Amino acid sequence: MDAKFIKLLLLGGAARFYFCRTSLGTVIGNRVEFATPLNSHKRMQEGIFLLQNGIDPYQGDVVHETPLILSALSGLFRNFPQFLPVFYILLDIFTAALLYMMAQRFVRKKQDQQNVETKEYATDTTELQFSGSDKMDIPELVIVAYLFNPLTVLSCVGMTSTVFSNLFLAAFLYCLTKGLLLPCLLILAFETVRSFYPVVLLAPLLLTFSGRSIRSGFLISLLFAACCLVISVANFFVLNSWNFLDGTLGFIFYFRDLQPNIGLFWYFFTEMFEHFRIMFLITFQLNATVLYLLPLSIKLRREPLLLATILVALMAVFRAYPSLGDVGFYLALLPLWKRCWKFMAHGFVVFTFFIVTLSMMGVLWHLWIYAGSANANFYFGATLAFSTGQIFLITDLLFAHVKRDFCLFNGQKILIDGEEAKIVLK
Amino acid sequence: MCQLRPRPLCQRLGSLLMALQVFLMAVLPAIAAATPATVGAPPPTTAPTTGGSRPNFSGPLGRSDERFHEELVVRPLSGDHVNTYFQFTTRWHFGKKDNLYHTQLTPRVIAEVLQQFDVKELHIGLTQGLWRYETWGYPIVEATSGAEMWAWFSGDNLTATEVDRQWGQLANVFSGVLCASLNFVDKTNSISPRHLLRPQFMPANRPRSVRYASLPREIVCTENLTPWKKLLPCGSASGFASLLNSGHVHNTKYHSLGLKVRMLCEDHLEDNCIVELTQTANLVYDLRLFELSNNDFSLRRLFGMGLNGFCELAESSKIYVQRNEQGQKYSLVPQPTQEVKSIRGGHLVVYAVYDMLEQFKDPGERLFNIAWLTPKNENRRRNLMKPTLPPVTVHRYLLGNGQERGRIATEVTNNHYEALPILVQELVPWYVHAYLHTLKIRRKPQRVNEYTRRWLPFKLLHYTPGKQRELPSHLEIGFTLPGQTSALITIDVDYLLLKWLEYPPDANHGHYIGAAMVSTQLPMGRNYTALPPEGHLFEHSFNATRPNYVLSLHTEALIVSLPTPDFSMPYNVICLACTVVALAFGPIHSVATKVIVVGRQASAPKNFVRKILGKIFRRNTVQVRAAAAAAAGAAQAEALRGGGGGRGGGRTAADQPILEDLREEEEQEQD
Prior knowledge:
The complex is a heterodimer. By secondary structure, chain A is mostly helical. Chain A has helices at residues 3-21, 24-29, 41-52, 67-79, 84-117, 134-147, 150-157, 162-178, 181-195, 202-209, 214-239, 243-254, 265-270, 277-288, 293-299, 304-318, 324-333, 347-371, 376-410; strands at 415-416, 419-425.
């Protein structure tokens, strides 16, 4: 914990606090890009209000937060509504701190690993190896990317519950690098019951903790299921009803609310023919969860954290109700793979994609909803392009990692007949 | 009828219905605890019955006593409007339920519905236009624009699902009977009001349930009027119904057809029942549309023809013409034979009465007409006489712009000087999300334009959240509105994007949000013309002074424009979205399944055409096939099995052999 770290945290908090005091909070809280049916602050308020008035919030379909969170925040929302922004800011800063510590630990581990393997590395690969300064640089980059990314700042200012999701994910990653099995399981189970998709993060967890034994892997999976059950039961006892399962997980799986967001689901299922709906629903949910899980787990079995990063990113692209807060979170994990950056070819393209589509989203939304001079296709186009940009980024990272891994052992310059060879996937 | 012939059952029912009215108020006093005007009401379950002697059914009112009455009320309204109100009442003391098979005057379908279902009370309204409370006062029968329907069910072992089933079937029956779209009434637009609707059937102290639905989009037209007239004993052949010609009815500014059925049974004796069918037609004409030189009008002018007589099956057939207030300036031709003064709640109304049975006493065919004549010296000038403002008026509007979200504002104004208890019921359809935590009641004194920050507290709140495609949101709130004050009830809503096939044909027309219902109880009878709950004829409202009067009002219906998708491109959207998914699938698939190979990079040709050709024929790049797919697979599998025990500590086992293979192959090539 050095002074710079504290300063960055304070600065990030101050930036958020400044924007909270402007009218930006309500604007962002109403933007579909940030506030989805799952994470919007308005729905959280509604849920807590209904809960306090003795009405089952899950009877209707406005509220999709878990009962535990609703009842935990109930007192805060009722008694100290003026401190809510501060509360969200504190959580977000805590997330940043967790990411920082996670990054520190990760770099240290990488360096240890490097020291063991260093003899096997090719000669011209120093720039691919973690250097001494990375111990400071990478955590700093991570925390800067989290604290000063406009996406996370605005997501926090809009008081979306993505702040909680990010906190849980950061805590999960921290526990993962630190090797704390039980907290890891509990956090993951909690987040899974909340928003379903994090269930895929069981794969990096198993890779980290089970070693090579199938038996311990099975045991951990069982333990995870037990944790999920315990948390569900705890949720059950808040209202003494299982309605919340349909209100949270069922709502996510069946994609009942077609409110536009930055994902692929909304327009697809708006325009879907009714008799194909179930099939495509299952296809899309499989795509968002297990489709890439197995191949990536096999490919990245030695890099659980990279697997987690990729899965979190894929989740943010393919989940039913993604928000820009999710995007901001996985962008903050990218500096961990600083040593892969050399091989990332599409950086500029992706950056341009992000800038252009994000600014177009606001414009096209206005044209569609308020001016009436555009239609839904325009906005859909922007979200589609944004998803494409994200996919480029993710696949780029994957390729970069594979190439780095190869070059680390075989050297960056492979000469065939005195000519530089080309590395391709076959 | 009750007044004319002393009949024990009638009196008994009368007293019971008085109790019912008291019961009706049972909720409102709870709100108006602080209101001095309210009298304490006994709890509903102790509705008193005048126990004792059994009613004498052997009197003039036999077991199958069935009577039909027709009434027409003409009330000139301010602003050159005329309200004509038709009421056709069939009252049948049928006794046992089995007797319902033998109908005479009551339509068979009504009797069958009562046989088939546990429905005890049914209201259906089909209305076009908006009743303007400020200028027209209160209508005799309340209705909201479009179709509206509610029914009370009561019976043994009636579960909620059974009620829902019966409600759906009932709506379908009357959809056929009235040729209205009532078949669209289902779970998605029906609610069970908790406080606002009170029963008017008897005995009402049993377990009972109510369902309410409104279809604001429904357009009422000739196709509804004709089947409605067919329910009358005389049809449209004779009597007042012959005046209801669709060409003239649908030229009005406001027309509302109503159907009300209720059962009145003895408390403990289910086989001693009366069924009451009331059909009403409430019309408002705008005299200016007749383009006359003066404001004279007549029945012939209003309905296209004179009256050809009375319905021969009718017990009574009377026309009531209001003579005071706006009716004062008119002289009537022919002169009325009788005048009735009615003082109700301190409010005097004078009616001229024409009894058709007397008018058409003599044989011979002729047409009867009444003319309203203004004095000659009064020129064609708008009626400038300001009407007295009714005690409570309501309005509703939408705030906000765009197709994303809005705010529903309901304004209730109390023009009275005393505080009044107000109940408001909102039915928000499922395609609009309401946020209960944003519900606010702001108040302002009547003379002030701006609403203050002062909030009125709720006395009562009932809320059922809505569910998409399943349930509407249902909100009932009660509060006390101080005298000379307006209350603005606002609630924030989100407009949802629907599936493309869920939009009606004209999607950009917008979606309707039904009218809110507002109920209150007035301490005085100013502008109040509704029938007392215990009465069934219009004449029963004469001199019907009560401690207070239950008033029910409807606000305007709203229309919201939801965001619409583009209806023309489902295929394109499916293709594009799937393409993006494939964009991710392809690279991840290749990363996961392919191995790295090193190829020789030949110098790229400068010529663009040759570059292309080179790409096609791959002549310039000598690719070195390193490992066959099988070898790669084997290497992968080996890596999987034996790979790094020390997580990443191990050397990437897969890479080394491939590179060696590569080199070998290169050597071979070099040879």
